[in-house]
Structures are given as C-alpha cells and as structure tokens.
Amino acid sequence: MFRARAVIAVLVATLAVAVTGCGGQSDEEKAKSTVQDYLTAVSKGDGNKACSLVTDATKKKIEQSAKRSCPQTFSSLNQGPGKAVLQAFKQAKVENVKVNGDKATADIKLKQLSQKTNLRKEGGDWKLESTGLAG
Prior knowledge:
Layout: H1 2-13, H2 27-44, H3 47-52, H4 56-66, H5 70-77, H6 82-87, E1 93-100, E2 103-110, E3 113-122, E4 125-128
Antiparallel strand pairs: 1-2, 2-3, 3-4
C-alpha cells in the first residue's frame, strides 16, 4: 500500500498539461485532458511524453534529484514491480480541475486514494509544476 501511495504521489505531482490543437476547449478541459495524457504516458512507460508534460523547472529538479535524464527517470518507474502498480493509473480519474489565471489544480483519484496536483501555463500550454520525483 505504501509503494502504491508513493507511486501515486510521484505520478500525480508530476502531472502536466501540454495540449495542442484543442480547439474550443476551456482551460479546465485542457488541463484535465493533459493530466489524463500524463497518466497514460506514465502507465505505458513513455518517459519522453511524460517529461513533455512537466514544466522546465520540474524537469531540472527531477534530473538533479535522480541523477539521470527526465525521460530515463519516468521510464524506469515502469520497470520491475512498479509496472503492475502503474497499470492501475489507467483507471485513475481526474476531477475538481480549478484554474486561476496561469495556475491550476486537479485531483487524481485512484480507488479510495486522492492526490492534488498543481499545474502552470508554460509557453501557452498547461504543464505539471511539481513532482514527488523532484523532491
């Protein structure tokens, strides 16, 4: 259970919003969509996609903390026993998205667990602002 919570904290905190071509979607819809894209990328072990969904500052923190590239760090989460835990994120729900200017929050709910994540607009796209990986 502790491992699942640790993985949830890492993943949820790293959620980001980087939506392109969203047409008439509201910021709340864009943020929610990006959080869902992040969860999908992490559950598939797609480190490049997951890292594209976090802010530049967050990438730097991840790399300093892990002593390896952001994509390598995310990809490694999906190896060994972590893979089974991450598969559960395919069932996660993104709720309570709230936007205030260039900042947003969203709740990630997985079974009975819930984690709030912070997002920020960077380069016109929503991206995850902080991660459990970044300390």
